[in-house]
Amino acid sequence: MESFDIAVIGAGIAGASAAWAMAARHRVVLLEREAQAGYHTSGRSAALFSETYGNATVRGLSVASRDFLMSPPAGFSEHALLAPRGVMLVGTAGQEGLLAGLAEEGARLVPSVREITAAEALARVPSLRRDWVRGGVVEPDAMDIDTNAMLAGFLRALRQLGGQVRMEAGLHGLSHDGQAWRLETRAGAIRAPVVVDAGGAWCDAIGAMAGARPIGLVPKRRTAFLVDPPPGMGAEAWPSVIAADESFYFKPDAGKLLCSPADETPSEPCDAQPDEIDVAIAVDRIQQAADIPVARIAHRWAGLRSFVADKTPVVGYDPVVPGFFWLAGQGGYGFQTTPAMALCAAALVDRRALPAMATDRGVTEAALSPSRFSKS
Ligand SMILES: Cc1cc2nc3c(=O)[nH]c(=O)nc-3n(C[C@H](O)[C@H](O)[C@H](O)COP(=O)(O)OP(=O)(O)OC[C@H]3O[C@@H](n4cnc5c(N)ncnc54)[C@H](O)[C@@H]3O)c2cc1C
User: Fold this and answer.
1) Ligand 1: lining residues by beta carbon, under 6 Å
2) Poorest-confidence range of 39-43, 108-112, 150-154, 282-286?
3) Distance from the CA of 243 to the center of ligand 1, in angstroms?
4) Which end of the chain has fewer CB atoms < 10 Å from its terminal CB, N or C?
5) 68 phi and psi, to 5 degrees?
C-alpha cells in the first residue's frame, strides 16, 4: 500500500490549490473521483473576482489573493490569471436606498467603489432600459479570472513539487488504525495520517466516512447560460452587470454574454443540471432590465455552490476526529479566495499561525475553524 503524509480528496480548485500549498513541506497525493479535474463546480463558475462580494472573512481572503493572482510565481501559467472587467450593480425604482447602502459599504473596503447615476450606467451598458435603471454602483477593479489557467497552474505546480495526482480514484471508505488513515479508492488503497476533505458538495459525505459530525453543508444549484450579445453595442467591453438585489447577472464571456438568474436552489450533491424554468426566469428578469434579445441559447449549465450556515469557508482539523481536515464551504467565492485559502489551509494543517497576508485582512483561525459548529 502506498503511503503519503497527506491525502487531499477532490481535484477542484480548493483541493488542487491546497495540495500545491501543502506539497512544499509534505508528500501529498490528490485523489479525484472523476476522469477530469474541475469536472464539477470548478468547471462551471462565472469566473469573477470581486473584492466586495461575500462576508468579511470572504472579502479578506479575496483581497489577500489579489497579489498572487496578478503576479503568480514564474512558470505558473502562460496566460494572465486576471483580466480587467469591472462590476456594475444596477437597481430599479425603489432600490435607490439599497444602491446607496451598497456603495457606502463597498467604498469602505475598496476605495474605488462609487455610486453612479442612471445616465452613467446607461453610458457603460447602453442596452439597459432607460425606464428600468435608476442608478448603479461600480467596482472598477473587479476582474475576470481565467479559471482553467488557474486550476491547471496549481496542478502543474503541485506535480513540480513531487505531488501525485490520481484521477478516477474516488474515495469510498476510510478507516483509522490509531496512527493513520487507510483510504479505499477505486485506484487502490492508500495510507496517510492526514486526510484533507476538499470534496466540494460532497464534503459532508466524506466527513461521514470518517465518522465526523456534519458541518451542515448545503449545496445550492446555480444556473448559467450563454447568449449572443446585442450587435453593435460594444458588449465585449461591458462590465459584469449584477442586479443590486442579486436577482440576475450578465457578463461578457469570450464573445458571448454569460447570464444567470443567480438562483440558489438547495440540492443533493450531484452532477448538477440546469432547469429550463431557471433559464426562463433569468431571460425574463434580464429582459425587464435590458434590451438583450435571446434568439438562441448557445450553451447552458448548472453547478453547486456549497455553503454552511454562516457562509464562511470551513478550514481546519475536525475537533473530534484525528487527522481529518476540512476544506469546505467555498460557496460562490472558491476561485477569488484562492490562493489565500490554500495558504491558510497549509498553515493550519501544520498547526502553524495563519499567514500575515490573511491576518492583515482580518481573517482569523476561529472564523474558519470547524470547531465553531460543535459549540452550538
Ligand atoms: C454558476 C456558478 C458561478 C460561480 N461564480 C463564481 C465566481 O464568479 N467567482 C468565484 O470565485 N467562484 C464562483 N463560483 C464558485 C466556485 O466555482 C466554487 O466555490 C469552487 O469551484 C468550489 O471548488 P471546490 O474545489 O470546493 O469544489 P469542486 O470543484 O466541486 O471540487 C470537488 C471535487 O471533489 C471530488 N470528489 C467528491 N467526492 C469525492 C470522493 N469521494 N473521492 C474523490 N473525489 C471526490 C468531486 O468529483 C469534485 O471534482 C461559482 C459557482 C457556480 C456554480
Assistant:
1) 9-15, 31-34, 38-42, 44-48, 170-171, 198-202, 206, 222, 224, 303, 305, 330-336
2) 108-112
3) 24
4) C
5) -60, -45
Contact 33, 57 (CB under 8 A): no
Beta strands 256-260 and 218-227 are antiparallel
Q: Is the pLDDT of residue 376 over 70?
A: no
Q: Closest ligand 1 atom to the C-alpha of 328?
A: 26
AA identity, residue 222: R
**What is the domain range of residue 228?**
87-140+218-307
Q: What is the 3-state secondary structure (H, E, C) of 48-117?
A: EECCCCCCHHHHHHHHHHHHHHHCCCCCCCCCCCEEECCEEEEECCCCHHHHHHHHHHHHHHCCCCEEEE
156 & 280 share domain:
no
Using the structure block, give the residue that is written with the C-alpha cell 501543502: 22
Q: Give the whole-angstrom CA distance, residue 69 versus residue 335.
A: 10
Cell of 191: 495510507
Name the pLDDT band for 109 (thresholds 50, 70, 90): confident
Residues 239 and 348 in one domain: no
